[in-house]
Amino acid sequence: LASAAGMGGGAFYVTILMFVGGITPHDAVPISKGVIFLGSLTALSYNVLKRHPVEGGSIIDMKLVQMTVPLALGGTMFGVLLLNLTPAYLLTGILAAIVTFVTFKTFRGALNAHMQEKMSSLSSKDEAEDSRRYTVPHFNRDELEERNSLSSPLLGHGPLDSALQSSRVIVDCLLMSLLLVAVILLGYSSRQYPHSRHAAKIRGGMCFAAFLLSVWLHGYFVVKILKEGGEDWTLPRCCIYGLVAFVAGIFSGLVGIGAGIIFSPFFLLMHVEPLSAVASAATCVLFTSTSTTAQYALMGRIPFDRAVVYGIVAAASSSLGVRWAASLTRHRRRSYLIFIVAIASGLMAVLLVVKVVIDVAPGVDWGDWGLEDAMK
Question: If 0-12 CB within 10 Å is exposed, 13-18 middle and 19+ buried, where does residue 372 land?
Answer without folding.
Answer: exposed
